[in-house]
Amino acid sequence: MEERIKNVEEQIEIKQEAVIPPEKEGRKWSPKTIVDKFGALFGLIGLSIIMTILAPTFMTVDNLMNVARQASINALLSLGMLLPIITAGIDLSVGSILALSIVMGGLVTVTWGMSPIIGLIALLVIGALAGLINGLLLTKLRLPHPFISTLGTMNVYRGLALIITGASPIFGFPLLMNYVGQESISIVPVSFILVIVVAIIMHIFLNRTATGRYIYAIGGNKEAARLSGIPVDRVLIIVYTVSGFMAALGGLVLIGRTNSASPIAGLTYELDAIAAVIIGGASFFGGVGTVIGTLIGALIIAVLRNGLNLIGTSSDLQTVVIGVVIILAVFVDVLRRKGAKK
Amino acid sequence: MLLKMKDVSKSFSGVQVLHDINLEVEEGEVHVLLGENGAGKSTIIKILTGAYTKDTGQIKWENEILEVAEPKDAIDAGIATIYQELNLIPELSVMENIFLGHEQKKRSKFSLLNRSAMKKRAKELMKRLGQNTDPDELVQNLGVGQQQLVEIAKALSLNAKLIIMDEPTSSLSGNEVEQLLQTVERLRKQGMTFIYISHRLEEIKRIGDRITILRDGTKVKTVDVNNTSIDEMITLMVGRTLNNKFPKIEFKKGNEGLRVERLKLTPESQEINFTAYAGEILGFSGLVGAGRTELMRGIFAADSIESGDIYIFGEKKKIRQPKDAIKEGIAFITEDRKEEGLFLDQPLYFNKTIAKLEQVKKNGLISVKGQKNIADKYVESLKIRPNNINLLARHLSGGNQQKVVIAKWLFTQAKVFIFDEPTRGIDVGAKVEVYNLINELVKSGACVIIVSSELPEILGMCDRIIVMHEGALTGDFNRDEVDQEIIMKAATGG
């Protein structure tokens, strides 16, 4: 009997070796892992090369800084959107949160004439608060999916922004409120510096804090997360609060770029943000997604828009191209996963 | 002869699970497959229904060779299967479920559905089963017993000649069981043939004609039900020596580890009291659905309980959610490691440290290096193969996945370990390694509870055995005072 068990054991060992080749440290940079890690980056580089060939003015410092500026708002929203998507959720309300937070900022500084510092705080707090409400609706009311809760608040927040302003935009922000969206340090737009700083913080948050790791755990397997003692509800509330806060930050950039706060600002921004996250390699099924991928996703969209503009393509056609890119990006991801399974 | 399996064998990853099985099923009989979990019953069924393909051997159906490459081949031949988990769409009506996939059309393939004809036929089929079910009733409005009859009606509508039933009564209440047994008897009188799998011996005695007994993937023998007593069935089923497969080590029984007092899962359920001690392995035995998993989930607060007190090493503790349970030193290794234990798309080091991340913090941030160091340590000590902590949990074998889950809980420094079906679905060699790990835990002074449906596992590894039946404790035995028959008796409420 013992003999037999031993034999079986040996067989099992051999079999496993055969099925899964032990990946040693030295093989860390195999072609497959490089594509895995930097697939989206190759997409961005390839796209940039094509744009350079088609539009000679694309690869100039001025234009690249322009791309960086144009990418900023979506990049901020995308970095926020990344969190709900990693948890296998979604936040449809970010465009509306952006609008609500900037009109609040306008109300405080322009209409009431208060200090721009207070305006700034009001703007950011409103964004975080709106996100917090999303999180509470999802976890405390036990709404079945964040698609529903944020679809609801998307309408509520937009409506509130319209009511507050009487549906007309607020103009004439004080200098400090315009700074981030308008100014550059040397040649680099301040908004892009903000994106980089936020991205670094977000990267550390997701990878090096317990809450960050819990976000991946919840997206990977919610039940296992709960049974591992992870405070699932609290983490989800944080996720949506951060997403709302990031939308408000995006709004701050928009104020500077337009020197105004319109209650209809940010319409469909949530869709661009979702696109950037997905192009960046995150999965709708949760558990997967990176900051660097998301940034690249946002840049790919910006490069596409900018390049197609330079070439002289109509904005209608741009929309078609971006749609195709989203589908292609996800399709490539599907192929890759299939390959990994074999 | 309706069905004849000749010398059918099957292995998985080099481990043979079926050895030259010969099975003959006569037309019009209820042929019972009997054996412990892992004896090979399900594998036989899956080969017959096309879920697995056999390695060697031959299947003859109505005296002609039948190749079952996919489920459709079996269905076309007239073999219908009713699984423990019913395959019905709750939101659709009885009629729609019966004809799902083979709907009747008005004229050609592309014309509209012939609803009136299907309705009439559905009514007839349910009548044949002695039921007056409205064909338009939604399946979700029916009880489990009725739903099962809808499955049988579906089999009849497919002109099945053989109906395979895999533990059909395990999820039914008393009346529903009676109804099902009557239905089987009625159909058999009409000439239907059954392959019937059940652990409930009384039931087998009542409706079975012949029994084929399996053990360790080998056929023991086929006997007539009338000439075989229940005791004989049990002996034939379990008759094997348990040495070496269970590396049991005796330790000195220590202090009280986990005490459960007056625990009620629901307002209606019975109060449960028991104590588990450090240095011992306490086994929970019982039939599927006896309430063992529910009890453990209640203790761990994975599900909420009605009332009751829990004491950990003598101290009363408030446990409202899994987080509290973990804080108090309880580890819960769930039955379904893929659904409830693992993060399949995360590397091993993530899986091992996620339940206690504060332990790997450095300057307030989580150290990936720290995580990896700890993971390395467990890979080493638990012999996890392949020994690569960057591998995704998905890519490990079942046994190694189980070790990863155990490592996760070892890292939380738990003192009370609850294992729910610790060796389900893992192979013989890996089982022994899991048992060795459990021994190590007990040696280190932990209190270990094992819930298992495999009697040999319970008898082979546990010092004390509590038996459950329908949500209540029906026996508490020391290992030296029980055998399988005594446990079986307590587990069936006898």
UniProtKB/TrEMBL annotation, chain A:
Q: Please state where this protein is localized.
A: Cell membrane
The record's section on InterPro entries has:
ABC_transp_permease
Looking at the keywords, is Calcium present? no
Q: Does the keyword Acyltransferase apply?
A: no
Q: How does it sit in the membrane?
A: Multi-pass membrane protein
Q: Which GO terms describe its molecular function?
A: transmembrane transporter activity
Provide GO CC annotations from the record. plasma membrane
Tell me any Pfam family this protein matches: BPD_transp_2
TM ranges: 38-59, 71-90, 97-114, 120-139, 160-180, 186-206, 235-255, 275-304, 316-335
Q: Which UniProt keywords apply?
A: Cell inner membrane, Cell membrane, Membrane, Transmembrane, Transmembrane helix, Transport
Q: Which PANTHER family match?
A: ABC TRANSPORTER PERMEASE PROTEIN YPHD-RELATED (PTHR32196:SF21), ABC TRANSPORTER PERMEASE PROTEIN YPHD-RELATED-RELATED (PTHR32196)
User: Under what name is this protein listed?
Assistant: Ribose transport system permease protein
Q: Which organism is it from?
A: Oceanobacillus polygoni
Automatic annotation (TrEMBL), chain B:
The protein's matches in InterPro entries, at most eight in alphabetical order, are given as:
AAA+_ATPase, ABC_carbohydrate_import_ATPase, ABC_transporter-like_ATP-bd, ABC_transporter-like_CS, P-loop_NTPase
SUPFAM superfamilies according to UniProt: P-loop containing nucleoside triphosphate hydrolases
- Would you say which domain of life the source belongs to? Bacteria
How does the record say this protein sits in the membrane?
Peripheral membrane protein
**What start-end ranges are recorded for coiled-coil regions in this protein?**
none
Cell compartment(s), UniProt:
Cell membrane
Residue ranges of domain ABC transporter in the record: 3-241, 244-494
Listed GO MF terms? ATP binding; ATP hydrolysis activity
Q: Which UniProt keywords apply?
A: ATP-binding, Cell membrane, Membrane, Nucleotide-binding, Repeat, Sugar transport, Translocase, Transport
Which Pfam family, an example, fits this chain? ABC_tran
What protein is this chain from? Answer: Ribose transport system ATP-binding protein
Provide the species name. Answer: Oceanobacillus polygoni
Which lineage is the organism of this entry classified under, starting from the top rank? Bacteria, Bacillati, Bacillota, Bacilli, Bacillales
